[in-house]
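Thread: flavin-adenine dinucleotide complex, take 2
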Amino acid sequence: MDRRGERFCNEEVYGAALGHAMCETREGHAWLILDARLVKLALRECLRGKLWAFQSVPAMLLMLAGRKRAGSLADLAARIGSDPAVLERTINAYNLGALNGIDRAFGKSAAMLQPLMYGPYYAIDISSDSRVFPCPSITLGGLRVDETSNAVLSAQGRPIEGLFAAGRAACGLASNHYVSGLSLADCIWSGRQAGRAAAGVVLANAAHSLTETD
Ligand SMILES: Cc1cc2nc3c(=O)[nH]c(=O)nc-3n(C[C@H](O)[C@H](O)[C@H](O)COP(=O)(O)OP(=O)(O)OC[C@H]3O[C@@H](n4cnc5c(N)ncnc54)[C@H](O)[C@@H]3O)c2cc1C
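Output below.
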């Protein structure tokens, strides 16, 4: 939820979609609210070894070290600086939906709707500037390049001699919004293209200097 204590997104969406909503609509700030039962379930899931380390390690770090804890929702709201009335209203509405298996506000699936009813309650800072979460964001977009050679373009739109960019240092398919898989694929494709173009320049220069020495 956002700084005021209101939900703004279906919490089960892919991380990049959540990050997009948080950064585009909530200035990069959000809290994840859990209750004692959900923390226990989540820790058990992390320890079962079925998640990648880059998923389970930050999750455990956040749940054990990067959290604010309070016995009631009103106290939790005070600890995170949100409005207690708004937070309680939000959680009550969410719980009502969770108990009925329907999330009218954001369409979260019934399987993921877990009511938050058993204190103590926890708030985890998932903001883009969180110091505990080690990888909340990745680079998207980059320098403007020529699409056939990946040569970096100047402000005037002309290729800068000898300068090539690839991967997330260059603009590409994943420039505007992250889509899993697309980023690495685009890096490989643009890296090969930039490498081939750069090698072409080296070969042309070598051929040129050979003809000059002949
Ligand atoms: C946790 C996580 C999960 C991800 N999962 C996926 C996924 O499932 N699918 C997908 O498509 N994408 C995924 N991504 C995104 C993808 O990994 C990146 O978009 C991609 O690796 C970017 O590649 P790159 O070559 O542009 O940059 P990088 O891989 O970041 O490479 C840049 C390199 O430059 C080096 N470097 C930096 N500064 C200097 C310097 N001054 N001198 C010399 N070297 C320097 C760095 O050490 C690094 O090795 C994930 C990213 C993260 C963080």
